[in-house]
Amino acid sequence: MNFHLLANTRASVVRLNSKEQPSSFQFKGGNLTVTTLELMTANCAAIEQELQQQTRRAPAFFSQTPVVLAFDRLKQETVALELIVDTCKRNGLIPIAVRCSQDAIKRSAWALGLGWFPLQADRRLSEVKKETDCEIRKPTKIVRSTVRSGQQVYAEHADLVILGSVNEGAEVIADGNIQIWGSLRGRAIAGAQGDCTVGVLCRQIRAELVSIAGTFQTFDAFAWPDDSERPVEVRLSNGRLVIE
Amino acid sequence: MAKVVVITSGKGGVGKTTSCASIGTALAMQGHRTVLIDFDVGLRNLDLVMGCERRVVYDLINITTGEAKLSQALIRDKRVDNLYMLPASQTRDKDALTFEGIELVINELKQEFDFILCDSPAGIERGAVMAMYFADEAIVVTNPEVSSVRDSDRIIGLLDSKTRRAEQGESVRTCLLVTRYDPERVEHADMMSVQDIEEILAIPLSGVIPESQAVLRASNQGIPVVHDSESDAGQAYMDMAARFLGEDRPMRFIDFERKGLFSRMFGGRR
User: Fold this and answer.
1) Cα separation of B85 and B117, whole Å?
2) Strands of A141-143's sheet, edge to edge?
3) How far apart are alpha carbons A42 and B221 in whole angstroms?
4) What is the DSSP string of B188-203?
5) Residue-level pLDDT at A227
6) Partner of B62 for a Cys bridge, out of A72, B68, B171, B246, CB 3.0 to 4.6 A?
7) Which member of A146, A149, A165 has the closest CB to residue B154?
8) How are beta strands B34-38 and B3-8 bridged, if at all?
Protein backbone atom coordinates (compact mmCIF):
# COMPACT_ATOMS: atom_id res chain seq x y z
CA MET A 1 0.00 0.00 0.00
CA ASN A 2 1.33 3.39 -0.99
CA PHE A 3 1.03 6.27 1.41
CA HIS A 4 0.76 9.63 -0.27
CA LEU A 5 0.64 12.15 2.51
CA LEU A 6 0.31 15.75 1.56
CA ALA A 7 2.19 18.31 3.52
CA ASN A 8 0.05 20.68 5.51
CA THR A 9 -3.12 18.71 5.17
CA ARG A 10 -4.91 21.04 7.50
CA ALA A 11 -8.59 20.22 7.73
CA SER A 12 -8.29 18.11 4.64
CA VAL A 13 -8.93 14.42 4.25
CA VAL A 14 -6.53 12.14 2.52
CA ARG A 15 -8.23 9.07 1.16
CA LEU A 16 -5.78 6.22 1.12
CA ASN A 17 -7.84 3.70 -0.67
CA SER A 18 -9.51 4.81 -3.80
CA LYS A 19 -10.91 1.33 -4.51
CA GLU A 20 -14.51 0.43 -3.62
CA GLN A 21 -13.24 -1.28 -0.48
CA PRO A 22 -14.14 0.91 2.55
CA SER A 23 -11.00 2.38 4.21
CA SER A 24 -10.11 1.45 7.74
CA PHE A 25 -9.12 5.02 8.71
CA GLN A 26 -8.77 8.60 7.57
CA PHE A 27 -5.99 11.08 8.15
CA LYS A 28 -7.32 14.46 9.17
CA GLY A 29 -5.43 17.66 9.72
CA GLY A 30 -6.60 20.11 12.32
CA ASN A 31 -5.68 22.43 15.12
CA LEU A 32 -6.03 21.19 18.66
CA THR A 33 -5.57 23.27 21.71
CA VAL A 34 -2.87 21.73 23.80
CA THR A 35 -1.44 23.02 27.04
CA THR A 36 2.24 23.74 26.91
CA LEU A 37 4.35 23.38 30.02
CA GLU A 38 7.12 25.85 29.54
CA LEU A 39 9.99 24.89 31.80
CA MET A 40 12.24 27.49 33.34
CA THR A 41 14.39 24.86 35.04
CA ALA A 42 15.34 21.19 34.63
CA ASN A 43 15.39 20.66 38.40
CA CYS A 44 12.82 17.91 39.02
CA ALA A 45 12.44 18.61 42.74
CA ALA A 46 11.55 22.24 42.07
CA ILE A 47 9.15 21.29 39.29
CA GLU A 48 7.41 18.70 41.45
CA GLN A 49 7.02 21.12 44.36
CA GLU A 50 5.42 23.75 42.19
CA LEU A 51 3.18 21.25 40.40
CA GLN A 52 1.83 20.02 43.73
CA GLN A 53 0.97 23.57 44.75
CA GLN A 54 -0.80 24.12 41.43
CA THR A 55 -2.70 20.82 41.77
CA ARG A 56 -4.06 21.89 45.13
CA ARG A 57 -5.26 25.15 43.67
CA ALA A 58 -6.91 23.67 40.54
CA PRO A 59 -7.34 19.89 40.90
CA ALA A 60 -9.73 19.63 37.92
CA PHE A 61 -7.07 20.86 35.54
CA PHE A 62 -4.57 18.20 36.53
CA SER A 63 -6.59 15.09 35.67
CA GLN A 64 -4.81 13.27 32.87
CA THR A 65 -4.26 16.46 30.90
CA PRO A 66 -2.09 16.08 27.80
CA VAL A 67 0.75 18.60 27.72
CA VAL A 68 3.66 19.53 25.49
CA LEU A 69 6.89 20.04 27.37
CA ALA A 70 8.63 23.11 26.02
CA PHE A 71 12.33 23.62 26.61
CA ASP A 72 12.58 26.90 24.66
CA ARG A 73 13.68 28.88 27.67
CA LEU A 74 16.37 26.45 28.77
CA LYS A 75 19.93 27.12 27.73
CA GLN A 76 21.33 23.67 28.63
CA GLU A 77 21.76 21.02 25.91
CA THR A 78 20.62 17.99 27.97
CA VAL A 79 17.96 17.39 30.62
CA ALA A 80 16.83 14.36 32.57
CA LEU A 81 13.71 14.06 30.40
CA GLU A 82 12.62 10.71 31.86
CA LEU A 83 12.53 12.15 35.37
CA ILE A 84 10.62 15.22 34.24
CA VAL A 85 8.05 13.06 32.42
CA ASP A 86 7.61 10.90 35.55
CA THR A 87 7.17 14.02 37.68
CA CYS A 88 4.43 15.22 35.34
CA LYS A 89 2.65 11.87 35.32
CA ARG A 90 2.66 11.76 39.13
CA ASN A 91 0.83 15.08 39.10
CA GLY A 92 -1.87 14.21 36.61
CA LEU A 93 -0.26 15.46 33.41
CA ILE A 94 0.40 13.27 30.37
CA PRO A 95 3.35 14.55 28.32
CA ILE A 96 2.65 13.82 24.66
CA ALA A 97 5.51 15.67 22.99
CA VAL A 98 8.39 18.03 23.54
CA ARG A 99 9.23 21.30 21.85
CA CYS A 100 12.89 22.21 21.74
CA SER A 101 15.85 23.06 19.59
CA GLN A 102 18.31 20.88 21.50
CA ASP A 103 19.11 17.67 19.59
CA ALA A 104 19.83 15.62 22.75
CA ILE A 105 16.39 16.38 24.20
CA LYS A 106 14.76 15.56 20.87
CA ARG A 107 16.43 12.14 20.81
CA SER A 108 15.47 11.42 24.46
CA ALA A 109 11.86 12.30 23.59
CA TRP A 110 11.80 9.83 20.70
CA ALA A 111 13.33 7.17 22.95
CA LEU A 112 10.51 7.76 25.45
CA GLY A 113 7.90 7.53 22.69
CA LEU A 114 7.12 11.25 22.75
CA GLY A 115 6.63 13.48 19.74
CA TRP A 116 8.82 16.42 18.87
CA PHE A 117 7.93 19.94 17.65
CA PRO A 118 10.36 22.51 16.35
CA LEU A 119 10.51 25.94 17.95
CA GLN A 120 7.66 28.04 16.66
CA ALA A 121 8.13 30.87 19.03
CA ASP A 122 11.48 31.67 17.46
CA ARG A 123 9.97 32.39 14.10
CA ARG A 124 7.14 34.41 15.59
CA LEU A 125 9.54 36.41 17.73
CA SER A 126 11.72 37.31 14.80
CA GLU A 127 8.67 38.32 12.78
CA VAL A 128 7.46 40.63 15.48
CA LYS A 129 10.91 42.07 15.87
CA LYS A 130 11.09 42.80 12.17
CA GLU A 131 7.83 44.70 12.37
CA THR A 132 9.01 46.90 15.19
CA ASP A 133 12.27 47.53 13.35
CA CYS A 134 10.24 48.83 10.42
CA GLU A 135 9.90 52.60 10.72
CA ILE A 136 6.43 54.00 11.06
CA ARG A 137 5.52 55.46 7.66
CA LYS A 138 3.59 58.68 7.83
CA PRO A 139 1.43 60.10 5.02
CA THR A 140 3.29 61.68 2.11
CA LYS A 141 4.25 65.30 2.69
CA ILE A 142 3.15 67.57 -0.14
CA VAL A 143 4.70 71.01 -0.75
CA ARG A 144 2.52 72.99 -3.14
CA SER A 145 5.03 75.68 -4.05
CA THR A 146 8.57 76.06 -5.28
CA VAL A 147 11.23 75.42 -2.64
CA ARG A 148 13.52 78.44 -2.80
CA SER A 149 17.13 79.22 -2.04
CA GLY A 150 17.82 78.97 1.67
CA GLN A 151 14.70 76.92 2.39
CA GLN A 152 14.75 73.36 3.68
CA VAL A 153 11.94 70.82 3.69
CA TYR A 154 12.10 67.54 5.62
CA ALA A 155 9.57 64.72 5.38
CA GLU A 156 10.17 62.58 8.46
CA HIS A 157 9.26 58.90 8.01
CA ALA A 158 7.47 59.85 4.80
CA ASP A 159 7.71 60.42 1.08
CA LEU A 160 7.98 63.99 -0.14
CA VAL A 161 6.21 65.49 -3.15
CA ILE A 162 7.10 68.98 -4.39
CA LEU A 163 4.59 70.38 -6.87
CA GLY A 164 6.95 73.22 -7.83
CA SER A 165 10.69 73.20 -8.41
CA VAL A 166 13.59 72.90 -5.99
CA ASN A 167 15.77 75.91 -6.72
CA GLU A 168 19.51 76.32 -6.32
CA GLY A 169 20.46 76.69 -2.68
CA ALA A 170 17.33 74.85 -1.52
CA GLU A 171 17.38 71.44 0.16
CA VAL A 172 14.68 68.77 0.23
CA ILE A 173 15.07 65.77 2.53
CA ALA A 174 12.86 62.72 3.01
CA ASP A 175 13.19 59.41 4.81
CA GLY A 176 11.25 57.96 1.88
CA ASN A 177 11.10 58.85 -1.81
CA ILE A 178 11.28 62.36 -3.24
CA GLN A 179 9.16 63.37 -6.20
CA ILE A 180 9.58 66.80 -7.80
CA TRP A 181 7.06 67.87 -10.42
CA GLY A 182 9.24 70.77 -11.51
CA SER A 183 13.01 71.02 -11.88
CA LEU A 184 15.54 69.86 -9.35
CA ARG A 185 18.25 72.53 -9.21
CA GLY A 186 19.14 72.30 -5.53
CA ARG A 187 19.84 69.36 -3.25
CA ALA A 188 17.70 66.26 -2.81
CA ILE A 189 18.37 63.77 -0.04
CA ALA A 190 16.18 60.66 -0.10
CA GLY A 191 16.32 57.74 2.32
CA ALA A 192 17.74 59.99 5.01
CA GLN A 193 17.38 57.22 7.61
CA GLY A 194 19.19 54.73 5.44
CA ASP A 195 16.42 53.23 3.31
CA CYS A 196 18.27 52.30 0.11
CA THR A 197 15.15 51.22 -1.81
CA VAL A 198 13.94 54.79 -2.30
CA GLY A 199 14.55 57.10 -5.24
CA VAL A 200 14.38 60.68 -6.44
CA LEU A 201 12.03 61.49 -9.33
CA CYS A 202 11.96 64.83 -11.08
CA ARG A 203 10.77 66.37 -14.33
CA GLN A 204 14.14 67.94 -15.07
CA ILE A 205 17.48 67.52 -13.34
CA ARG A 206 20.07 70.24 -12.81
CA ALA A 207 20.82 69.21 -9.26
CA GLU A 208 23.65 70.45 -7.08
CA LEU A 209 23.59 67.24 -5.08
CA VAL A 210 21.56 64.04 -4.96
CA SER A 211 21.86 61.59 -2.09
CA ILE A 212 20.14 58.26 -1.53
CA ALA A 213 20.66 56.47 1.79
CA GLY A 214 23.93 58.31 2.32
CA THR A 215 25.37 57.66 -1.15
CA PHE A 216 25.65 61.04 -2.77
CA GLN A 217 26.86 62.71 -5.90
CA THR A 218 27.59 66.39 -6.39
CA PHE A 219 27.23 67.91 -9.81
CA ASP A 220 29.02 71.21 -9.33
CA ALA A 221 31.38 70.94 -12.30
CA PHE A 222 28.85 69.02 -14.32
CA ALA A 223 27.69 70.57 -17.58
CA TRP A 224 24.26 69.07 -17.92
CA PRO A 225 23.61 67.76 -21.40
CA ASP A 226 20.60 68.88 -23.38
CA ASP A 227 18.72 65.68 -22.70
CA SER A 228 18.56 66.55 -18.99
CA GLU A 229 15.31 68.29 -19.98
CA ARG A 230 13.55 64.94 -19.70
CA PRO A 231 12.06 63.40 -16.54
CA VAL A 232 14.54 61.29 -14.63
CA GLU A 233 14.69 58.79 -11.81
CA VAL A 234 17.71 58.58 -9.54
CA ARG A 235 18.05 55.38 -7.56
CA LEU A 236 20.63 53.22 -5.88
CA SER A 237 21.91 50.17 -7.73
CA ASN A 238 24.72 48.05 -6.26
CA GLY A 239 25.77 50.92 -4.04
CA ARG A 240 26.02 53.43 -6.90
CA LEU A 241 23.67 56.18 -7.94
CA VAL A 242 22.00 55.55 -11.26
CA ILE A 243 20.31 58.34 -13.21
CA GLU A 244 17.75 57.18 -15.75
CA MET B 1 -7.93 100.67 0.18
CA ALA B 2 -4.27 101.62 0.42
CA LYS B 3 -1.76 99.10 -0.82
CA VAL B 4 1.66 98.60 0.72
CA VAL B 5 4.16 97.51 -1.93
CA VAL B 6 7.74 96.52 -1.17
CA ILE B 7 10.43 96.83 -3.84
CA THR B 8 13.06 94.29 -2.95
CA SER B 9 15.79 92.13 -4.49
CA GLY B 10 18.19 90.59 -2.01
CA LYS B 11 21.19 91.67 -4.02
CA GLY B 12 22.35 95.27 -4.01
CA GLY B 13 22.82 97.48 -7.03
CA VAL B 14 20.20 95.82 -9.21
CA GLY B 15 17.97 98.90 -9.45
CA LYS B 16 15.56 98.82 -6.52
CA THR B 17 15.80 102.52 -5.78
CA THR B 18 15.69 103.53 -9.46
CA SER B 19 12.65 101.29 -9.96
CA CYS B 20 10.95 102.56 -6.82
CA ALA B 21 11.37 106.19 -7.95
CA SER B 22 10.16 105.52 -11.49
CA ILE B 23 7.24 103.25 -10.63
CA GLY B 24 6.13 105.64 -7.88
CA THR B 25 6.33 108.57 -10.27
CA ALA B 26 4.39 106.66 -12.94
CA LEU B 27 1.65 105.72 -10.45
CA ALA B 28 1.35 109.34 -9.33
CA MET B 29 1.18 110.46 -12.99
CA GLN B 30 -1.85 108.17 -13.35
CA GLY B 31 -3.48 110.12 -10.53
CA HIS B 32 -2.85 107.72 -7.64
CA ARG B 33 -1.77 109.29 -4.37
CA THR B 34 1.62 107.68 -3.82
CA VAL B 35 4.27 107.83 -1.11
CA LEU B 36 7.77 106.36 -1.30
CA ILE B 37 9.48 105.24 1.91
CA ASP B 38 13.24 104.79 1.94
CA PHE B 39 14.05 101.89 4.31
CA ASP B 40 17.75 101.99 3.57
CA VAL B 41 18.60 103.61 6.87
CA GLY B 42 22.20 104.76 6.98
CA LEU B 43 22.67 104.95 3.23
CA ARG B 44 19.80 107.13 2.00
CA ASN B 45 19.64 106.99 -1.78
CA LEU B 46 16.02 107.45 -2.76
CA ASP B 47 16.06 111.21 -2.09
CA LEU B 48 19.05 111.56 -4.43
CA VAL B 49 17.32 109.68 -7.24
CA MET B 50 14.18 111.74 -6.64
CA GLY B 51 16.26 114.93 -6.61
CA CYS B 52 15.03 116.17 -3.26
CA GLU B 53 18.10 115.56 -1.10
CA ARG B 54 18.39 119.25 -0.19
CA ARG B 55 14.86 119.34 1.18
CA VAL B 56 15.28 116.59 3.77
CA VAL B 57 14.71 117.91 7.28
CA TYR B 58 13.13 115.07 9.21
CA ASP B 59 13.31 111.37 8.39
CA LEU B 60 11.60 108.04 9.05
CA ILE B 61 13.41 107.49 12.35
CA ASN B 62 12.40 110.92 13.63
CA ILE B 63 8.75 109.98 13.13
CA THR B 64 8.99 106.54 14.72
CA THR B 65 10.67 108.07 17.78
CA GLY B 66 8.14 110.86 17.96
CA GLU B 67 10.61 113.66 17.27
CA ALA B 68 8.62 114.86 14.28
CA LYS B 69 5.14 114.60 12.84
CA LEU B 70 4.52 112.68 9.64
CA SER B 71 3.44 115.86 7.83
CA GLN B 72 6.74 117.49 8.71
CA ALA B 73 8.83 114.69 7.27
CA LEU B 74 6.90 114.03 4.07
CA ILE B 75 8.56 115.69 1.07
CA ARG B 76 6.27 116.66 -1.79
CA ASP B 77 7.60 116.00 -5.27
CA LYS B 78 8.06 119.15 -7.33
CA ARG B 79 7.34 117.56 -10.69
CA VAL B 80 4.31 115.37 -10.09
CA ASP B 81 1.24 115.97 -7.97
CA ASN B 82 0.13 113.21 -5.60
CA LEU B 83 3.74 112.08 -5.07
CA TYR B 84 5.49 112.26 -1.70
CA MET B 85 8.51 110.64 -0.20
CA LEU B 86 9.70 109.78 3.28
CA PRO B 87 13.51 109.78 3.49
CA ALA B 88 15.69 107.44 5.50
CA SER B 89 18.08 108.71 8.12
CA GLN B 90 21.67 109.16 7.08
CA THR B 91 23.05 109.34 10.59
CA ARG B 92 21.27 106.50 12.37
CA ASP B 93 21.63 102.80 11.72
CA LYS B 94 19.10 100.08 10.92
CA ASP B 95 18.70 99.05 14.56
CA ALA B 96 16.92 102.34 15.20
CA LEU B 97 13.86 100.99 13.34
CA THR B 98 11.22 99.01 15.19
CA PHE B 99 8.30 97.03 13.85
CA GLU B 100 5.91 98.93 16.12
CA GLY B 101 7.20 102.29 14.89
CA ILE B 102 6.93 101.24 11.24
CA GLU B 103 3.43 99.91 11.76
CA LEU B 104 2.28 103.24 13.20
CA VAL B 105 3.78 105.17 10.28
CA ILE B 106 2.31 102.83 7.67
CA ASN B 107 -1.13 102.88 9.28
CA GLU B 108 -1.08 106.69 9.28
CA LEU B 109 0.05 106.79 5.64
CA LYS B 110 -2.74 104.37 4.69
CA GLN B 111 -5.28 107.08 5.58
CA GLU B 112 -3.79 109.49 3.04
CA PHE B 113 -2.43 107.43 0.17
CA ASP B 114 -3.40 104.82 -2.42
CA PHE B 115 0.07 103.31 -2.78
CA ILE B 116 2.84 103.09 -0.20
CA LEU B 117 6.05 101.95 -1.90
CA CYS B 118 8.76 100.66 0.43
CA ASP B 119 12.27 100.82 -1.01
CA SER B 120 14.04 97.91 0.68
CA PRO B 121 17.73 97.85 1.54
CA ALA B 122 19.82 95.06 0.05
CA GLY B 123 20.43 91.87 2.00
CA ILE B 124 18.13 89.58 3.94
CA GLU B 125 18.69 91.03 7.39
CA ARG B 126 16.49 93.05 9.70
CA GLY B 127 16.29 96.10 7.44
CA ALA B 128 15.05 94.11 4.47
CA VAL B 129 12.66 92.06 6.59
CA MET B 130 11.27 95.25 8.14
CA ALA B 131 10.69 96.79 4.72
CA MET B 132 8.72 93.75 3.55
CA TYR B 133 6.92 92.87 6.79
CA PHE B 134 3.77 94.99 6.27
CA ALA B 135 3.63 94.55 2.49
CA ASP B 136 0.50 93.51 0.61
CA GLU B 137 2.40 93.16 -2.64
CA ALA B 138 6.01 92.86 -3.65
CA ILE B 139 7.99 93.81 -6.74
CA VAL B 140 11.11 91.64 -6.94
CA VAL B 141 13.84 93.38 -8.94
CA THR B 142 16.31 91.07 -10.65
CA ASN B 143 19.21 91.49 -13.07
CA PRO B 144 19.67 88.83 -15.75
CA GLU B 145 22.55 87.32 -13.85
CA VAL B 146 22.90 84.11 -11.82
CA SER B 147 23.71 85.59 -8.41
CA SER B 148 20.96 88.18 -8.64
CA VAL B 149 18.39 85.51 -9.54
CA ARG B 150 19.59 83.32 -6.67
CA ASP B 151 19.23 86.17 -4.18
CA SER B 152 15.79 87.06 -5.52
CA ASP B 153 14.78 83.45 -5.02
CA ARG B 154 15.87 83.74 -1.40
CA ILE B 155 13.88 86.94 -0.98
CA ILE B 156 10.73 85.38 -2.44
CA GLY B 157 11.14 82.64 0.14
CA LEU B 158 11.27 85.28 2.87
CA LEU B 159 8.18 87.03 1.44
CA ASP B 160 6.39 83.70 1.80
CA SER B 161 7.43 83.28 5.43
CA LYS B 162 8.58 86.47 7.15
CA THR B 163 5.77 88.90 6.37
CA ARG B 164 2.70 89.65 8.41
CA ARG B 165 0.49 88.29 5.63
CA ALA B 166 2.46 85.05 5.66
CA GLU B 167 2.11 84.82 9.44
CA GLN B 168 -1.66 85.26 9.04
CA GLY B 169 -1.77 82.48 6.45
CA GLU B 170 -2.26 84.81 3.48
CA SER B 171 0.21 85.42 0.70
CA VAL B 172 1.97 88.51 -0.55
CA ARG B 173 1.23 89.00 -4.26
CA THR B 174 4.64 88.94 -5.85
CA CYS B 175 5.72 90.03 -9.32
CA LEU B 176 9.00 90.11 -11.16
CA LEU B 177 10.79 93.10 -12.65
CA VAL B 178 13.91 92.37 -14.70
CA THR B 179 16.23 95.36 -15.04
CA ARG B 180 19.40 96.08 -17.02
CA TYR B 181 18.29 93.65 -19.70
CA ASP B 182 20.40 93.57 -22.82
CA PRO B 183 18.73 91.54 -25.62
CA GLU B 184 21.91 91.57 -27.67
CA ARG B 185 23.93 89.89 -24.94
CA VAL B 186 21.10 87.42 -24.37
CA GLU B 187 21.25 86.62 -28.08
CA HIS B 188 24.94 85.86 -27.66
CA ALA B 189 24.18 83.75 -24.55
CA ASP B 190 26.20 86.10 -22.33
CA MET B 191 23.14 86.93 -20.28
CA MET B 192 20.22 84.95 -18.88
CA SER B 193 17.02 85.27 -20.86
CA VAL B 194 13.73 86.47 -19.39
CA GLN B 195 12.36 82.97 -19.93
CA ASP B 196 15.18 81.43 -17.87
CA ILE B 197 14.59 83.86 -15.01
CA GLU B 198 10.83 83.36 -15.09
CA GLU B 199 11.26 79.59 -15.00
CA ILE B 200 13.53 79.67 -11.97
CA LEU B 201 11.65 82.28 -9.93
CA ALA B 202 8.18 81.04 -10.91
CA ILE B 203 6.41 84.35 -10.31
CA PRO B 204 4.54 86.46 -12.89
CA LEU B 205 6.65 88.86 -14.94
CA SER B 206 5.47 92.46 -14.71
CA GLY B 207 8.17 94.22 -16.69
CA VAL B 208 11.55 94.19 -18.37
CA ILE B 209 13.66 97.36 -18.25
CA PRO B 210 16.39 97.44 -20.90
CA GLU B 211 19.96 98.39 -20.11
CA SER B 212 20.04 102.07 -20.98
CA GLN B 213 22.34 105.04 -20.73
CA ALA B 214 19.26 107.06 -19.82
CA VAL B 215 18.99 105.40 -16.39
CA LEU B 216 22.39 106.50 -15.10
CA ARG B 217 21.93 109.97 -16.57
CA ALA B 218 18.54 110.33 -14.90
CA SER B 219 19.81 109.12 -11.53
CA ASN B 220 22.69 111.57 -11.56
CA GLN B 221 20.33 114.42 -12.44
CA GLY B 222 17.91 113.40 -9.72
CA ILE B 223 15.04 112.96 -12.18
CA PRO B 224 13.37 109.51 -12.27
CA VAL B 225 13.99 108.00 -15.70
CA VAL B 226 10.26 107.59 -16.27
CA HIS B 227 10.13 111.34 -16.97
CA ASP B 228 12.36 110.71 -20.01
CA SER B 229 9.57 109.48 -22.25
CA GLU B 230 11.95 109.38 -25.21
CA SER B 231 14.09 106.68 -23.61
CA ASP B 232 13.34 102.97 -23.85
CA ALA B 233 13.85 102.56 -20.09
CA GLY B 234 11.37 105.37 -19.36
CA GLN B 235 8.78 103.76 -21.62
CA ALA B 236 9.43 100.36 -20.09
CA TYR B 237 8.74 101.76 -16.60
CA MET B 238 5.49 103.33 -17.84
CA ASP B 239 4.47 99.92 -19.23
CA MET B 240 5.42 98.25 -15.98
CA ALA B 241 3.33 100.66 -13.90
CA ALA B 242 0.37 100.15 -16.24
CA ARG B 243 0.68 96.36 -15.88
CA PHE B 244 0.95 96.77 -12.13
CA LEU B 245 -2.40 98.59 -12.22
CA GLY B 246 -3.90 95.66 -14.10
CA GLU B 247 -3.54 96.81 -17.69
CA ASP B 248 -2.46 94.21 -20.25
CA ARG B 249 0.49 95.48 -22.26
CA PRO B 250 2.85 93.45 -24.44
CA MET B 251 6.48 93.21 -23.32
CA ARG B 252 8.78 95.50 -25.26
CA PHE B 253 12.55 95.75 -25.53
CA ILE B 254 13.12 92.04 -24.97
CA ASP B 255 14.00 91.02 -28.52
CA PHE B 256 17.28 91.84 -30.16
CA GLU B 257 16.79 93.90 -33.30
CA ARG B 258 19.72 93.63 -35.63
CA LYS B 259 20.85 97.10 -36.53
CA GLY B 260 20.87 97.96 -40.21
CA LEU B 261 23.86 99.57 -41.86
CA PHE B 262 22.20 102.98 -41.74
CA SER B 263 21.56 103.06 -38.02
CA ARG B 264 24.94 101.54 -37.34
CA MET B 265 26.52 104.49 -39.13
CA PHE B 266 24.36 107.27 -37.81
CA GLY B 267 22.39 106.04 -34.85
CA GLY B 268 24.44 106.27 -31.72
CA ARG B 269 23.11 105.08 -28.41
CA ARG B 270 20.57 107.39 -26.92
Assistant:
1) 9
2) A141-143, A160-162, A178-184, A199-205, A232-237, A240-243
3) 105
4) TTSS--HHHHHHHH-S
5) 62
6) B68
7) A149
8) unpaired
- Rg from Cα positions in chain A: 32
Q: Do B154 and A183 touch (CB under 8 A)?
A: no
Alpha-carbon distances of A29 from A1, A99, A163, B108, B129, rounded to whole Å: 21, 19, 56, 89, 77
Q: Which of B154, B170, B196 has the most A C-beta neighbours within 10 Å, making it the best mutation to test the interface with A?
A: B154
E strand map for A52-157: 65-70, 93-99, 115-117, 141-143, 152-155
Name the CA dihedral angle for A144, A148, A152, A156, rounded to a multiple of 10 degrees. 20
pLDDT digits (tens, 9 = 90+) for A106-127: 888 888 888 888 876 544 444 4
Selected for mutation to probe chain B from A146, A148, A204 (highest B CB count within 10 Å) is A148
Chain B positions touching A165 (Cβ under 8 A) are 200, 202
Give B-chain residues touching A164 at CB under 8 angstroms.
202
Percent of chain B's residues with pLDDT above 70: 95
Q: Give the minimum alpha-carbon distance from A186 to chain B in angstroms, rounded to a whole number.
A: 11
Task: Calculate how close chain A gets to B178, using CA atoms only, in Å.
Answer: 18
**Which segments within chain B are labelled E, that is strand?**
3-8, 34-38, 75-76, 83-86, 115-119, 137-142, 173-181, 205-210
pLDDT below 70 — which residues of chain A?
Answer: 1-20, 120-135, 220-223, 225-228
State how beta strands A215-218 and A209-212 pair. antiparallel
pLDDT exceeds 80 at position B175: yes
ipTM above 0.85, yes or no: no
Which residues of chain B make contact with A146, given a CB cutoff of 8 A? Answer: 202
Question: Is the Cβ pair B200, A151 closer than 8 Å?
Answer: no
Does B151 contact A at CB distance below 8 Å?
yes
Burial letters B206-243, b for 16+ CB under 10 A, else e: bbbbbbbebbeebbeeebbbbbbeebbbbbbbbbbbbb
The nearest CA of chain B is from the CA of A220 a distance in Å of: 14
The whole-number pLDDT of residue A1 equals: 36
> Position A47: which residue type?
I
**pTM score, whole prediction:** 0.68
Select from A148, A165, A182 the Cβ nearest to the Cβ of B157.
Answer: A148
Which amino acid is it at A185?
R
Interface test with A, best of B172, B200, B203 (most A CBs within 10 A): B200
